[in-house]
Amino acid sequence: MKTLVDQLGTSHSFKTSPQRIISLVPSQTELLYDLGLENRIIGITKFCIHPYHLKETTKIVGGTKKVHFEKIRLLKPDIIICNKEENTLEIVTELQKICPVWVTNIVTIEDNLKMIADFGQVFNCKSKAQKWSDKLIFSLNDFKQFLKDKPTGTLRKTVAYFIWKNPYMVVGSNNFINELLKLNQFHNCYETLERYPVIDLKKMRLDGAPDLVLLSSEPYPFTEEDAIEIGQFTHNAKTIFVDGEMFSWYGSRLIKAFEYFKVLHSEI
Questions:
Q1: pLDDT in tens, 143-163
Q2: Residue 117 neighbours by CB under 8 Å, 6+ apart
Q3: Superfamily of the domain at 2-136
Q4: 0.90 surpassed by pTM
Q5: Superfamily per CATH, domain 150-267
Q6: In whole angstroms, what is the distance from residue 100 CA to residue 92 CA?
Q7: Whole-number Å distance between alpha carbons of 101 and 104
């Protein structure tokens, strides 16, 4: 019997390593695949798009905020993988009636590395988990060196990172996106606000007058018209459409994110 504790402090006991996995978090589905666990994944969300072929070979059990509980029950999972931010407490509570629900809580890169190590323990793939952690740490240090080599004047830009429209919502503090903004040496002008605050565009100049407006590709598909509207309320801030996966997906996706960030800095 192996007893392990998830990132919310919940203890789970397993007689054997779980063989039938349902993942309700897209980035964690990708990580499970990269850890060599594809044959154990029996259920995913409609938003689990990496690797794409999983949608053809694995049962879709809903989204991240709305799931089909009966479909999940019929799949007879050994474990369900959730996340504190992506999935609701109500969903987790209901799923716990079916089988153990492992909940992650990712705010920092250290949290991300802990998740990978935990999966290595839970799914008995510690060697592969360690290899991914080593690769991520190497890539992280390489990116930090990349920033050190850049001229000081090109860094420390004030940014506003938009994730939604109607109402307009931005990234505040205490979330993974903000951690990656800080890693990039951007100053988030909404960092004094919690989570994902709703803002008034007319007050943007007072809120921090960003040098850069970053429009994420997800969860809302911003357009050129949106960029023009937002830009009218800044002091000539530069608007950049960014790949939301690179800023919000944790797990193994960070390997690609660090390289993406290098290209992003060349565009600023």
A1: 999 999 988 767 889 999 999
A2: 126, 129, 130, 133
A3: Nitrogenase molybdenum iron protein domain (3.40.50.1980)
A4: yes
A5: Nitrogenase molybdenum iron protein domain (3.40.50.1980)
A6: 10
A7: 10
